[in-house]
Amino acid sequence: MVHRRARRDRDLCVVGVRTLWRTVGDGEFFCPECGGDRNFRRRTGRRRIVVLGLPVLPRGPVAPIVECAACGSRYGTEVLDHPTTIRFSAMLRDAVHTVALAVLAAGGTEATAVRQVAVGAVRAAGFADCSEDQLLALIEALAADTGRLPGACGERDGLDPCGTALAIELHEALEPLAPHLAPTGREAILLQGARIAVADGPYRPAERAVLETVGRALMICPDDTARLLAATRAAF
């Protein structure tokens, strides 16, 4: 009854301004109001002067919005920059996997302890079926693919200590994820890589270079990166 009365009063308004919306797309997004993944409608609108409930004169467009199909909340289109829960989980899983491979490529895979820690980290991140053989096969494939990983980390041919291609791999996996993680979450990814590196002893220069690259890609300041690496080494 209340809603019908409000609608009737609006329609009886002599002169006013109303926005007419048009749906131009849809998809799935993370709705802050619902706190989970929901369907959305992407909508554009135009303001019109309304006389006796009838739109007559245009007043120009309004900014596009994203409307939750479940709760009806409306947001600016920047809300779509936040990954869905499923996408976020995949990004986190891939980030840990990439860091593990980078550390192994830098420090070698000869030590059993290193391989075991790496496999444990990757499994915990979501690749439950990961095995040592799979990681070793990926390391060999990456080492053979000179366009993406020109060998183990180290100073060569004027590249930075981590290797330009390997640094790109890390930045591509970590930079899109970093803004959506709390500081403790970013540090946790760095620490997982550090634990792999120290599983067989002190950091090698190439391992440290990789971990410093990880810290930069995760937006961790160099002093905090150094502190975390030192704490991890002391713990082992």
Q: What does this protein structure show overall?
A:
- By secondary structure, the chain is an alpha+beta fold.
- The protein folds into two domains: 13-79, no CATH class; 83-147 and 156-233, TerB-like (Orthogonal Bundle).
- Helices cover 48% and strands 22% of the residues.
- The protein contains eight helices and four strands.
- The protein has helices at residues 2-11, 85-107, 112-125, 132-144, 164-174, 183-198, 205-217, 222-235, and strands at 15-31, 36-51, 54-68, 74-76.
- A hairpin with a 2-residue loop joins strand 2 and strand 3 (54-68).
- The longest helix is centred in the middle third of the chain and has 23 residues, at 85-107.
- The N and C termini lie far apart (69 Å).
- The model is unreliable at 1-6 and 146-162 (pLDDT under 50).
